[in-house]
Write a structure and sequence with these properties.
heterodimer, A: 203 residues, mainly alpha, 7 helices, 82% helix, 0% strand, B: 279 residues, alpha/beta, Rossmann fold, four-stranded antiparallel β-sheet, 10 helices, 35% helix, elongated
């Protein structure tokens, strides 16, 4: 698995540098302005999403999965590596949101970190098996539908908060803190499904 | 090691195409060349062998049950992403293959004059293929499987790579399966040849024996018309003469001593077999 994880890391490394620069800018904005940092975390989620989708495109372009399948225990290792990467990106999203929130001295730092990490893990849990089943290109359609659905849910939550008079200060129920756990559970189930797909898949 | 590869009655159905009832063995210390036209089933056979696809029927044994750990695979296209550096390929391959030898990889990178700090996208096709071969050899496999690995390379690079393959099978513990359209390459290095035609093994055996048993006839159309069709694999008739591939050189010589036969090439075997099939 180490080899597959390293290969994926090398492929997203250049993107990581780019996003680290963005994070520094966001951090400066969080310290010196009154802007809400949660919008920055959206960029991190989008980065995580696009990184994972991009890896499947690289896989397809180079017929990497066929090569990986010819490596001892390659099919399982490929899936394990990518899920571990998704989990690490989820942790990264939590860390970035917490750091930015603390720098900006916001009240709902942990809630927002939990929401974004949970959303990302749930997203990954859905998209990864779809990518393994249909490939990165076809999975784009699914991505669009998921993002639209998430935007819809976000909009509804915003409306609820606004109607309940919480526009000034957001008061979220503690259950939101469990979102990353729900995301992790979904990711674990998703991992089992993806492993099953990959063990049977022909390239 | 008696056989590096042992395939028994393997069948794989892929849509309208079927790889039918393939049986072949590759003894240790030898190179088997897999030839055939586009779509004949060469890549399908290799994929079945490596577990990339699963055969519908039949048995496949690699290295007497040793499995994929001691197999080096070189696909027809470089499997390493354009964005990766040559050094990064070495770094992550160390985590892919249990027997990875970093020093050996460095040796091949230097030998093939591959630039450590260049991205794969900056390499020529020949260099990409050398990188794939370096990666395949650096975990010290006992079996090397190459799918069209020399296609699209210039003769100098091909010759260099073929020398590397000959060095690889220095003892009976190593073997190579190589598929190629470039039959002249296979003629140079192969001990055994298997010709796949429309998903079936049409010709298979030791290369020298095969080439010695077949004969290539160049004669007039009138002479060709006299020959027993059972001896003719395929023929090519033109305004200035005709050519035919004869399947039994000895039997032909006994019946038609006045017509001399030349030794055919593997390309002749392929072309005339295809023509015979179209009759």
């Amino acid at each position: 698995m180490k080899g597959f994880l390293k290969r994926d890391y090398f492929l997203i490394k250049s993107n990581l540098k780019f996003y680290l620069i963005f994070m520094l800018i966001f951090a400066a904005a969080a310290i010196f302005t009154s802007v809400n940092t949660s919008m920055f975390a959206i960029y991190v989620v989008i980065f995580g999403v696009s990184s994972i989708m991009g890896l499947f495109n690289y896989d397809e372009f180079n017929h990497w999965m066929a090569y990986g399948a010819a490596v001892p225990e390659g099919r399982r290792a490929m899936v394990n590596a990518r899920y571990l990467l998704a989990a690490l990106l989820g942790l990264g999203i939590v860390a970035v949101q917490i750091i930015l929130g603390l720098l900006a001295r916001e009240d709902i730092v942990f809630f927002m970190a939990a929401i974004y990490a949970g959303a990302f893990l749930l997203y990954a849990a859905i998209v990864l098996p779809v990518c393994y089943r249909f490939g990165g290109t076809k999975a784009r359609t699914v991505l669009i539908v998921i993002i639209a659905a998430m935007a819809g849910v976000g909009g509804m939550l915003g409306a609820v908060v606004s109607i309940s008079g919480g526009g000034g200060k957001l008061h979220l129920p503690p259950i939101f803190l469990a979102l990353p756990l729900a995301g992790a559970a979904a990711l674990a189930l998703s991992w089992r499904i993806s492993t099953g797909i990959m063990l049977k898949k022909e390239f | 090691m008696k056989y590096a590869i042992e395939i028994k009655n393997m069948t794989k159905m892929l849509g309208a195409f079927t790889l039918s009832d393939v049986s072949l063995t590759i003894p240790g210390g030898t190179i088997l060349g897999l030839i055939g036209e586009n779509g004949a089933g060469k890549s399908t056979l290799i994929k079945c062998l490596l577990g990339i696809i699963t055969p519908n029927e039949g048995e496949v044994a690699l290295l007497e049950g040793a499995g994929l750990g001691e197999v080096g695979y070189v696909p027809d296209e470089c499997p390493f992403s354009d964005l990766l550096l040559v050094s990064q390929v070495g770094s992550f391959c160390a985590g892919l293959f249990p027997g990875w030898d970093g020093e050996l990889f460095a040796h091949y990178v230097e030998k093939f004059e591959l630039p450590w700090d260049k991205k794969v996208k900056e390499l020529s096709r020949g260099m990409k293929m050398k990188l794939s071969i370096a990666a395949a050899l650096s975990h010290r496999p006992r079996l090397l499987v190459l799918d069209e690995a020399t296609s699209g390379l210039d003769p100098v690079v091909r010759d260099e790579i073929l020398d590397e393959f000959l060095a690889f099978i220095s003892d009976e513990e190593h073997a190579i399966l190589i598929s190629s359209h470039i039959t002249s390459d296979l003629e140079k290095i192969c001990d055994y040849v298997t010709y796949l035609h429309k998903g079936r093994v049409t010709i298979s055996g030791p290369k020298d024996e095969l080439l010695a048993s077949y004969g290539k006839l160049s004669c007039s159309g009138a002479d060709l018309a006299k020959i027993d069709p059972a001896l003719v694999v395929g023929k090519r008739e033109g305004a200035y003469g005709s050519q035919a591939l004869i399947n039994d050189r000895r039997a032909f010589g006994a019946v038609y001593p006045e017509l001399p036969l030349d030794t055919p090439t593997l390309e002749d075997l392929m072309i005339f077999t295809t023509r015979g099939d179209e009759k």
